Amino acid sequence: MNALPVRVLALPLLLLLFSGGPAQAGTIAATLTVKVTVNAPPCNINDGRAITVDFGDEVMTSKVESGIYSQNVDYILDCAGAAADTLNMTIGGVGAGFDATVLQASQPDLGIRLSGDGKVIPLNTPLAIRRSAPPVLRAQLVKAPGGSLTAGAFSASATLTVAYQ
Question: Where does the Fimbrial-type adhesion domain lie (predicted)?
């Protein structure tokens, strides 16, 4: 019969004796707080395309101050994810030197006044609108008081932003 030396058997028994046996796990509870902000998808303006207003080639410099040169600003507003009907619309841009409510054009004494449903929209100022009935926007050429206009092409640019209230 082959006997194992006592030293070989004693070592595992001593380790088992001093290890304390199987450990008992205690139950620990913790409170987990989760904060989530769910945002509605952004409004889509004009399907992401630029909005262009064309005054044509027949603008007479001598008739601008009469106010006859006015065009619709055609745009599509899609805010389907809005929970409420009220939105903020802002037309951002640089005001003309002669009138801060008028958009600066590339000619010094020429500007563009923007209006919504017949009321002047001040530049860079949020305007409360209804998603279900967005305003009809118009752009009107404006001449600086006492200014003079030269024949030729002109341009102006602004940023139309719509945000949830």
Answer: 34-165
In the DSSP assignment, the letter for residue 9 is: H
Q: Which two tokens stand for residue 156?
A: 């102006």
Among the listed residues 102, 98, 135, 99, the one whose alpha carbon sits nearest the alpha carbon of residue 119: 135
Q: Residue 111: which CATH number?
A: 2.60.40.1090
**What are the pLDDT digits (tens) for 123-136?**
999 999 999 999 99
CB 143 within 8 A of CB 149: yes
Q: Is the pLDDT score of 20 beyond 60?
A: no
Give backbone dihedrals phi and psi of 17, rounded to 5 degrees, phi first: -65, -45
- Domain containing residue 145: 44-48+66-164
What pTM does this model have? Answer: 0.74
β-strand partners of 110:
143
Distance between CA 102 and CA 110 in Å, rounded? 9
From residue 157, alpha-carbon distances to 2, 52, 63 in Å are: 100, 9, 22
